[in-house]
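ok new one. same drill as before - structure tokens go in, u give me an amino acid for every spot. 511 of them this time. try not to just spam alanines like last time pls lmao
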């Protein structure tokens, strides 16, 4: 067990804590690992994104900006990328950042066989298969040029590689600490150091005063594991917690309280949610008219207001606002129950007659939303549907195994480009294609977009892909709640960006 910095904070009065500039907040879920090469999940990415950095970063507006790399060049239509590292950057250990650290970080991610989205791009590096299979000791597609420059060669064009998340860690820490080094030292370059993690209790970070972008405006952050939202809100009320992220299940109640509303900061979420319709498991979904009828039968605006207190947008598309390639002009199927009934009857199922029973499966946290949709589908269409909920991990496993006929799902953007949604969710060969959607045209356009370096051309392709998916009613877009943060004046520097990452103080921009 680590020594936990700031363990006496609970006993300190608010004024003393404020002067110490250590901010305390809550976590609803614990970390699963502190290994920067592993799949971190939403909680891990949120916390360790303050500790570890990548070659690039994302502005709050969704644009790519330099981070550990000051610039990059692309050759051979996206098959060759050359990066130039920022000079003078040091890890928390004091060691300087070098190309060797980047190379070891890339190799560690590949060796971990992490399910993270970044592996989709890294697996296209030359020699990646030989390296992960143990037939090669080094990665052939990584070429050091000097201490601060290197090249990556891919087997096919990868037009958005600079957008992909890749955390760089201190390879010296790994050599000294051996396997599991990340459990007893902080190996990043970020604005905060990882001081300690007591599993099931708390995580503590301390400010890195030597960060290349400037020291954070606070001296530390403490994350207490508090799964119960009521407990977290009570501690926020007393000033024990400086800021709290409001879970979507509590948005309506929290935002109805004028005291909380004054302290709330809302940020649109770079996420899409959808009702998945698996044609391979429920034959009526093979008819586009049935899929379109379901889209017209759902009053999504009522869900945005009723469940989330208006802190949500009733999305029409399958690409969220704020990422490259999004368009406001996508096809929408608003709530039109008469049109829904007409389409269903045209497909041969008047008033739902002849439709076999179907389960609507959702994560436990989305029980209320799933119940509302099921009720509407029964009333408007006569669809014989019942709701089944699963614990979050079990739901994810079942969805990724494509064993669900109708389900509530979603995808949080990993990088600010429409392909962050389109490639994993809708390409027929993707392991994350939960609906088993098959469309040769969509596959061809996605492959072309993945290899397109020019942003404008890639975005045009992405818009065409999204339009085709919506015309075919491949899925029903659902409301997306906003990120809502309650904060006291002590936490005025804290914000959450659309991608769910915490920032403390202004981000450095430019080279």
């Amino acid at each position: 067990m680590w020594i936990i910095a700031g363990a006496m904070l609970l006993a300190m009065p608010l004024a003393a804590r404020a002067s110490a500039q250590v901010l305390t907040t809550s976590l609803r879920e614990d970390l699963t690992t502190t290994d920067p090469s592993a799949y971190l999940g939403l909680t891990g990415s949120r916390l360790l994104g303050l500790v570890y950095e990548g070659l690039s970063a994302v502005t709050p507006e969704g644009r790519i900006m330099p981070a550990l790399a000051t610039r990059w060049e692309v050759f051979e239509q996206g098959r060759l990328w050359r990066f130039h590292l920022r000079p003078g950057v040091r890890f928390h250990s004091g060691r300087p950042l070098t190309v060797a650290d980047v190379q070891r970080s890339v190799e560690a991610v590949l060796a971990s066989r992490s399910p993270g989205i970044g592996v989709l791009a890294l697996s296209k590096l030359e020699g990646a298969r030989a390296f992960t299979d143990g037939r090669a000791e080094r990665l052939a597609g990584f070429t050091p040029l000097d201490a601060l420059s290197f090249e990556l060669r891919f087997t096919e064009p990868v037009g958005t590689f600079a957008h992909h998340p890749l955390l760089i860690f201190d390879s010296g820490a790994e050599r000294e600490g051996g396997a599991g080094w990340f459990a007893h030292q902080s190996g990043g370059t970020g604005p905060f150091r990882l001081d300690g993690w007591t599993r099931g209790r708390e995580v503590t970070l301390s400010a890195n005063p030597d960060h290349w972008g400037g020291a954070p405006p606070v001296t530390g952050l403490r994350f207490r594991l508090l799964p119960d939202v009521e407990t977290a809100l009570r501690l926020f009320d007393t000033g024990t917690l400086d800021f709290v992220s409001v879970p979507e299940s509590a948005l309506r109640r929290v935002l109805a309280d004028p005291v909380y509303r004054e302290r709330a900061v809302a940020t649109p979420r770079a996420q899409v949610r959808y009702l998945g319709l698996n044609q391979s498991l429920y034959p009526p979904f093979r008819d586009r008219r049935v899929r379109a009828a379901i889209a017209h039968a759902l009053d999504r605006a009522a869900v945005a207001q009723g469940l989330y207190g208006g802190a949500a947008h009733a999305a029409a598309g399958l690409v969220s606002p704020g990422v490259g390639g999004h368009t406001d002009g996508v096809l929408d199927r608003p709530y039109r129950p008469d049109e829904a009934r007409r389409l269903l009857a045209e497909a041969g199922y008047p008033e739902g007659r002849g439709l076999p029973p179907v389960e609507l499966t959702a994560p436990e946290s989305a029980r209320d939303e799933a119940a509302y949709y099921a009720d509407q589908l029964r009333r408007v269409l006569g669809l014989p549907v019942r709701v089944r909920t699963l614990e979050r991990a079990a739901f994810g496993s079942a969805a990724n195994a494509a064993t669900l006929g109708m389900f509530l799902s979603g995808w949080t953007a990993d990088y600010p480009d429409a392909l962050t949604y389109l490639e994993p969710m809708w390409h027929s060969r993707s392991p994350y294609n939960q609906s088993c959607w098959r469309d040769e045209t969509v596959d061809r356009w996605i492959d072309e977009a993945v290899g397109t370096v020019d942003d404008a051309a890639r975005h045009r392709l992405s818009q065409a892909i999204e339009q085709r998916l919506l015309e075919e009613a491949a899925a029903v877009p659902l409301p997306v709640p906003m990120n809502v943060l309650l904060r006291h004046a002590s936490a005025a520097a804290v914000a959450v960006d659309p991608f769910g990452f915490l920032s403390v103080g202004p981000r450095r921009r430019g080279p």
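The chain is about 30% helix and 20% strand. and btw The longest helix spans residues 455-471.
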